[in-house]
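Morning!

As promised:
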Amino acid sequence: MNWIFPTADSPHIKLQSRLLTLAAAFLFFDCLVLTFAPAVRLHEWTGTVRWQQWVAWLIWLVGFSLLYRGVNRFLPDRDPYLVPIVGLLSGWGLVTIFRLNPDLGFRQTIWFVLCIAGLLVGIRYPRLLPILRRYKYVWLTSVLVLTVLTLFLGTYPGGTGDGPGLWLQMFGVYLQPSELLKLALIIYLAAYLADSMPAHFRFMQLLAPTLVVAGASIAILIAQRDLGTASIFILLYCLIVYVASGKRRVLLISFFVIVAALVAGYLTFDVIRLRIEAWLNPWLDPSGRSYQIVQSLMAVANGGLFGRGLGLGSPGVVPVAQSDFIYSAIAEEAGLFGAVALLAVMAILTIRGIEIALHAPNQYQRFLAIGISTTFIVQAGLIIGGNIRLFPLTGVTLPFVSYGGSSLVTSFFSFLLLLMISNQAEDQPAAIERLRPYTLIGSLFLTGLFVIALFTGWWSLIRSSSLLARSDNPRRAISDTYVLRGEILDRNNVVLAESTGTPGDYVRTIEVPSLSATVGYSNPDYGQTGIEYSMDGYLRGVEGNSPTIVWWDHALYGQYPPGLNIRLSIDSMLQSKADALLAGRKGAIALMNAESGELLVVATAPTFNANDLQANWSTWMADTNAPLLNRVSQGQYPLGTGVTAFLYATALQTGLPPVPSDLSAVDLQDCAVSPGPAPDLANLVISGCPIATRLLASAIAPATQMSMISRLGFFAQPNLPIETAKATSLSAPFTSSTLVSPPSSWRISPLQLLIAASALSNNGHVPSPILVTAYQDPSKDWIAMPDLSALKTADMLNAPAATENLATTSFPGWETISHMIDGDHTVDWFIAGTTPEWKGAPLALVVVLEGGNPETTRSIGEEMFLSAVTPFGS
Amino acid sequence: MLPFLVFILRILAAIALFGFLGWALYTLWRDLRFQSEMVTTRKIPPISLSLASGSEDTRKTFTSTEVVIGRDSTSDFPLADETVSARHAKLSYRYLQWWVEDMQSTNGTFLNDERVETPTIIINGDEIRIGQIPILVEIQPFEQ
C-alpha cells in the first residue's frame, strides 16, 4: 500500500505512512466483516452481502492519499499525528454510518469529499491564519447573522417531525450555523485575546467585549433551544479565557457560572429537566423519557469486551444512533476494546493539540490551537459521557465520527487550522508566561477520557448481563427472528407453540391458542409471559447447552444457540375437552395428577389468543372480563364451603360431630345442591351445605383447623413457572368461626384449592405442582427437569376414609360443591378427586364458575372428571 | 466456515486498530524519552582554551557549563599575569551557545579585538584577549 501513502526518508513521513496504512487496513477488515455480516446472521450463505460501505472505503482511501501527498508538499513540518488520527476517526465514522444507514452514509460521503477538496485547496494558502485574525469581527458577525436567521427560517432535516429548527436549507443542502459559530467564536477569542492581552488592561475591561459577544451567541443558541451547543460555548469560553489569562480564579468563577447555568437551565427548560431526570433515574421510565439512554447502555452492554463485530450487533435500535449515539454503536460492535481505542486516539489528539499550542509561534495561534483541541475533546467528552450516563445527554456530535455535514465541515476546517499552526519549520515558540494552565487542562482532559473508559467498562463488563437480561432489551427478540426458538410440547409431544418461517423472519406461533394464558407469549413488542418467559433460558438455548456452545454462538453470531424443546405436563386432549366445557362461560378448570403434581389441564375462560396480540391488545386490556388473566393461577375467589371436605377429613381423625336429627328446611336451604332426604354428614359435605361447615368447625379445635389449612397450602403462593397470584392471609386471629364465615379479603386461587384437593386423593401428601417436565438436550435426549420440591404431609387428615365417604355411587370419585355470592355475581366451586379404589394415577379436579349455577358447575365438573378417568377411545 | 472467517477478520481489524494505536503511542513515548534525555543529560559541546603564544600543553578542555578565567589559582583557567584580574571573565553555555562575559575586570576582555561589554556568543576559532593574554577558543562540534 506504499504507493497510496508513499513513504520517504524522513521519520515523520514514515510514521504517517505507516499509521495511515494501518488505519486503511483496519477499515478494510471492518468493511469486509460488514460485507459478510448478513450471511453470518442468517447462519447460511444466501448470496446476500452488504457492499455500500466499500464506496466509503474507496473514497476515504483516495481522499486521504491525496491529502497525505498534499500536506507532504505544502505543510512539510506539520504535526505527524494529526492526519492519521483524523483519517482513522473520519473513516471509522463513515463506515459506522454506512453500517447504520446506507442512505445517510452516502450523504455523509458527499460531505466528506467536500471536506477533503476544501482541505486540498486550503493547505496551499498559509495566509489563511492571519486573514482569519484580521477579519475576526466579520466572520463572527456573519455567522451570528446566519444563526439568527435560523430563528425565522430554521428547518429540521428529519422532515416533518417537530425537531429543533437549527438548520438552514439551501438547494436541498442543510447547514447548521451553530456548528460554524463555535469555530468563529474560537477564532474571535484567540485573535482578540492575543491582540489585547499585552496592553495589560484591567482584567475585566479586557474581557468585557468577549463577554458581550459570547453572551450574545449563547443567548441566540438558548433562544434556539440548541442547549448542547450553548453548554459547549460556556465551557469553551471559560477554558480559553483561563488558558489565555493563566488566572486560576477564572476556573473558580467558571465552575460557579456552569453550576449556576445548570441550575437555571434545570428550572427554566423542560428539555434540560427531562434530560437531567433521565440521567439521574433512567430506570424509572425506560420506555419513555429515558428510552434513549437505556437503549444506549444496553448497546454498550451487548458489546462486551470484544464487540459483536460490525453488522452483527443491533445498534440501530438506539434512536439517532448515527449522530448522538455513534459511540454506543461503536461500543456495541467493536466492544470495550474498540471503545478504549477510540478514546485513546482522542487522547493522542488532545496531547498533540496541547503540544501544537505550546510550540505555536505567536499567542494568536497558540490560543487558536488550544481552542480547537479543547472543542474536539470537550465535545467528544460530553457526548460520549452522555451515551454512557456519565453526564446528562447533550445533543452534540462526536467530531469527525458522527453523522452531520456542518459538524464534519467545521471539524475538518478546525483540523486544517491545527495543521497550519503545527507547520513550524523552526522551533521558535512564543514565550509562555505560565505553563500551568496547559498542563492542567491537559491532565484534566486525559483524566476525563480515562473515567469515560472506566464507565464504558462498567456497563460493558460488570453490568452487562443484568442489562441484557432486561425484558425491554430488543436484541433478544431480534435474535429470536434469526435463531430457531425451542418448541413447547404437551405430554404426548403435541406441539403447543413453535417458531415458523425462514431465518431472519421467524415468528412465534401458539398452536393451541386456548393455552395462551399458560404458555404465554414471546413477542418483540409485548415482551414475554407464562412458560415462554420462565423457560426462556431453555427455549433460547442458553440453559441446557454447554457454556462453550453458548459462548461461541455469542462470539460468532452475537446470537443465542438454537433453542431446546421443552415438554409440559399438559394433556392437550383433556385440555381441549375442558376448553369446550368452558366455552361461553367465565371460570376455570384445573386437573392435576395428585401424586406427582403434574398439571394436566389448565383451562381458563374467557381467554385470549397469543397470535393476535397486535390486533386485540387494547381491547383485551380494557375488557372487564379480564381475558389476559389466567384464572387457574391468578384468579382468586372466596373459599365458601369449599373448605368443608377438608374439615370433614380432619374430623374423621379427631371425632365426627353428631348431626342433629331435627335438621329443618331452613338449615338445608343454603345448600349448593339439594342433599336429598335425611342426609348424613357426608351428604351435607358433598352438597355444599353451610350447616356441615358450622357443625364441623365447632367440633375441631381452632388450632387444628389452622394448622390443617396452612399445611394444605391455603396461605402459600404455589411455586409454578407461570404467573401465580400472591397468597392472601387472614387479617384477624383464627377462631372457631373463621372458616364458617371467612373474611372477604381471604381468597384462594383454583390452583391452591387443587393442591389441597390432591392431598385428599393422595393419602394426605401435598404434592408440588409441576408444569414443565423435561427438556430435549442438543443430542435430542429428553432430560427430566429436576424436582426441587419437598414432600409435605397433612397428617391430621384421614384422607382415605374421607374420600371413600364423600364418593357417590353415580360417580367414580369423591366430590363436593360450594355456592356463594361474591360481590355482584355468584361463584361455584366443584372439587373432586379419585378414591383409594382407583387403580390409575390419583387425580384431583377443581372447577370454578363465575355467575353460573351449582347444577351446571357440577355437571361440567363431573363430565370433565369422567373424561379424565375414562381411557380415550373406550 | 463463514462465521469463523468473519471472526478472523474481526481479529485482524482489531490487530490493525491496535497496531495503529500501539505504533502511535510507541513513537510518542520514544519522542518523550528522547526529549527528557535531552533535558537531563544536556550535551555540552566541549570548549578548549589554549594560550595563543604558548605551546600545546597549555590547552585545556572543559565540559562544564561555566568556565571562569582569572589570576586566582582557583579559577578554571588560571593566568599568571598582572593585566589579568583575579576573576576576569566567564564563559558559559546557555541557549545552545557558548557565551563570553566580562566580570568587571580592570583591563577588560576582548573578543577578536573588540571589547566585550555585554555577554557575547563565541564560536570555534575566536580569539579572546584577557588583559594582555590572547587565548584561542576551540569548540568541538555537537556530538549527535
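The longest helix of chain A spans residues 326-358.

Hope this helps with the figure draft.
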